[in-house]
Amino acid sequence: MFDTKTLDDLSKRLASALPPGLNTLKEDMEKNIHAILQTALGKLDLVTREEFEVQKMVLAKTRAKLEDLENRVNELEQQLMPKPEWVEPAPLDEEPM
Asked: pTM of the predicted model, to two decimals?
Protein backbone atom coordinates (compact mmCIF):
# COMPACT_ATOMS: atom_id res chain seq x y z
CA MET A 1 0.00 0.00 0.00
CA PHE A 2 2.86 2.35 0.82
CA ASP A 3 5.88 3.01 -1.32
CA THR A 4 8.67 1.05 0.34
CA LYS A 5 11.27 3.36 -1.18
CA THR A 6 9.72 6.31 0.65
CA LEU A 7 9.63 4.37 3.92
CA ASP A 8 13.25 3.27 3.45
CA ASP A 9 14.33 6.83 2.73
CA LEU A 10 12.48 8.19 5.76
CA SER A 11 13.85 5.52 8.08
CA LYS A 12 17.41 6.17 6.81
CA ARG A 13 17.01 9.89 7.43
CA LEU A 14 15.72 9.29 10.93
CA ALA A 15 18.52 6.82 11.67
CA SER A 16 21.14 9.25 10.34
CA ALA A 17 19.84 11.82 12.81
CA LEU A 18 21.10 9.62 15.65
CA PRO A 19 24.09 10.89 17.61
CA PRO A 20 27.49 9.71 16.24
CA GLY A 21 28.09 7.46 19.24
CA LEU A 22 25.18 5.26 18.19
CA ASN A 23 26.45 4.51 14.65
CA THR A 24 26.87 0.86 15.56
CA LEU A 25 23.13 0.66 16.12
CA LYS A 26 22.31 2.54 12.91
CA GLU A 27 21.33 -0.50 10.83
CA ASP A 28 19.15 -1.95 13.59
CA MET A 29 17.56 1.44 14.16
CA GLU A 30 16.79 1.78 10.44
CA LYS A 31 15.03 -1.59 10.43
CA ASN A 32 13.12 -0.78 13.62
CA ILE A 33 12.08 2.66 12.39
CA HIS A 34 11.00 1.17 9.07
CA ALA A 35 8.88 -1.44 10.84
CA ILE A 36 7.35 1.15 13.19
CA LEU A 37 6.49 3.47 10.31
CA GLN A 38 5.01 0.67 8.25
CA THR A 39 2.87 -0.52 11.17
CA ALA A 40 1.72 2.98 12.11
CA LEU A 41 0.86 3.94 8.53
CA GLY A 42 -0.84 0.59 7.98
CA LYS A 43 -3.26 1.32 10.83
CA LEU A 44 -4.38 4.57 9.23
CA ASP A 45 -7.45 4.49 7.04
CA LEU A 46 -5.76 5.82 3.90
CA VAL A 47 -6.38 5.43 0.19
CA THR A 48 -3.93 5.53 -2.65
CA ARG A 49 -3.69 8.57 -4.93
CA GLU A 50 -5.19 6.50 -7.74
CA GLU A 51 -8.23 5.52 -5.62
CA PHE A 52 -8.61 9.14 -4.56
CA GLU A 53 -8.55 10.41 -8.16
CA VAL A 54 -11.14 7.82 -9.23
CA GLN A 55 -13.47 8.83 -6.41
CA LYS A 56 -12.90 12.50 -7.24
CA MET A 57 -14.03 11.88 -10.84
CA VAL A 58 -17.06 9.87 -9.66
CA LEU A 59 -18.02 12.71 -7.32
CA ALA A 60 -17.70 15.33 -10.06
CA LYS A 61 -19.85 13.25 -12.40
CA THR A 62 -22.44 12.67 -9.69
CA ARG A 63 -22.51 16.36 -8.80
CA ALA A 64 -23.10 17.29 -12.46
CA LYS A 65 -25.95 14.78 -12.70
CA LEU A 66 -27.48 16.10 -9.48
CA GLU A 67 -27.38 19.68 -10.75
CA ASP A 68 -29.02 18.57 -14.01
CA LEU A 69 -31.75 16.74 -12.11
CA GLU A 70 -32.34 19.74 -9.84
CA ASN A 71 -32.77 21.96 -12.91
CA ARG A 72 -35.18 19.48 -14.50
CA VAL A 73 -37.25 19.25 -11.29
CA ASN A 74 -37.40 23.05 -11.06
CA GLU A 75 -38.56 23.27 -14.68
CA LEU A 76 -41.26 20.63 -14.09
CA GLU A 77 -42.42 22.39 -10.92
CA GLN A 78 -42.72 25.65 -12.83
CA GLN A 79 -44.81 23.92 -15.51
CA LEU A 80 -47.11 22.27 -12.98
CA MET A 81 -47.66 25.22 -10.67
CA PRO A 82 -50.73 27.25 -11.60
CA LYS A 83 -49.93 30.81 -12.47
CA PRO A 84 -51.53 33.15 -9.97
CA GLU A 85 -54.27 35.27 -11.46
CA TRP A 86 -54.24 38.93 -10.63
CA VAL A 87 -57.31 39.89 -8.65
CA GLU A 88 -58.14 43.58 -8.42
CA PRO A 89 -58.48 44.46 -4.74
CA ALA A 90 -61.72 46.05 -3.60
CA PRO A 91 -61.49 49.75 -2.71
CA LEU A 92 -61.12 50.35 1.00
CA ASP A 93 -64.10 52.68 1.29
CA GLU A 94 -66.60 50.13 -0.07
CA GLU A 95 -67.96 47.18 1.83
CA PRO A 96 -67.52 43.77 0.22
CA MET A 97 -70.66 42.11 -1.17
From this structure: 0.46
